[in-house]
Automatic annotation (TrEMBL):
GO MF annotation: an example: glutamine synthetase activity
Residue ranges crossing the lipid bilayer per the database entry: none
Annotated signal sequence range: none
Protein name: Glutamine synthetase
Domain GS catalytic, residue spans: 118-436
Family indicated by similarity: Belongs to the glutamine synthetase family.
Alphabetized Gene3D superfamilies for the sequence: Glutamine synthetase, N-terminal domain, Glutamine synthetase/guanido kinase, catalytic domain
UniProt GO BP: glutamine biosynthetic process
Keyword Ligase: yes
Keywords in alphabetical order: Ligase
Keyword Cell membrane listed: no
UniProt xrefs under PROSITE patterns: GS_CATALYTIC
Amino acid sequence: MTVLHKPAKLLEFRGKYPNTNFIRFQWQDYSGVHRARVLIFDTVIDLVSQGNPFQAAGIAIDCTVTNSILPRQPPRGMHYAIPDWSTLRLSSHPGTALVMCALDYQIQDLPLRSDLCPRQTLTKVLRQARETCQLDFLVGFEVEFIVMKSSSSPSSTMTRCSNGLGHFAVSGFRDLCYQYVEECVNDLRSQGAKIQAVHTEGFRGQYEIVLGPLPPMQAIDQLILVHDYLKGTFSRHGYEVTMSPKPVATESQANGQHMHISLQPASPSLEASFLAGILTRLPSLCAFCLPLSTSYQRLGMRMAGETVSWGTHSRLVPIRKVEPSHWEIRCIDVTANMYITVAAIIAAGLLGLMGRESLTWPDLGIRENQHLASQSELLPRGLDEALEALDTDVGLLASILGRPLIDHFVELKRYENSQIENMEPQAVRELLIEQF
């Protein structure tokens, strides 16, 4: 993390982008929502020069996806944003820069605490992997999305706008929406985003942007920048991009946010136990990877998978082995707090390594093993089941992630889920289109 004690880096950035008047101090809360405070650029320079902290908000990690606040007596206290200045970039909003932040919090005059911060938790897990197993990681994401527009239908305020054929069909690039995809990609590349490819996805009207591999923290920061540019670019043109899991109730296609993760260095002697650790805890990991009831509408072959299983080059299972020490985790969507999710997946893998767990699950990518698929344990069919599985595994996961973070996550998710259950399904769908 790059911490400034002098404003030279800020002045250099302003010299490069003289029309930048605002800086958005941004974090991702436990519900996956991006939240921020926007400060005037000159104010930021003054605060850095004086060594003063940046206040976030007392409710920084206490909000649900419905924008309600977790009931708490007494309130937690004050959160402080700790900007990582290496992430300073132009945002999609003209004249505004964006910097990703960690969060510390303080209750009255007690010492600052960081044990609830998703970003600092990931840093801690990565440090443990390096110190105990001499492992680093590369992570990349596949961002699936569709384009929506306002609808005159009395049953829905939004309808799908992008309509080109998917499944890599070139005709999808002739859809009028695609020009804004290209605009978005070009703007992101100008900000240093490592974008490898774009293609049409799904049956109709879906696109995918493939992000290149980076160390985990940088990969997630890049992912959030991509989200910002997708939402912001299309909004300027009068449309709404959504990466939400199931934006159109009547269509079978859904949006995932598949994650690629590889061990660095690749290690045949470690990869089996690392994968076993993840598979052993995959039902509980679903609480982080698929954190809303809507997320479970993606369960199925060729989407998020259905069972606790893996396979070489198989897209029918939740974990696809791409090459030695490199996997694609398919049971993830955009509603996840990705800092917590990646930390939890790596923590599960580390538990497998430390316990020398055996890989007893067959490779379902091998034709001779495919008849064994029906014997696999089912993934949770909803968030309540996933949270129950997390309760079962909480001890060992908490030894790496920290018990306060898991307890707060479960408390917020149970409260959030109770709110969503009282909403009409279409209202939930439209809320997720707006947020994600």
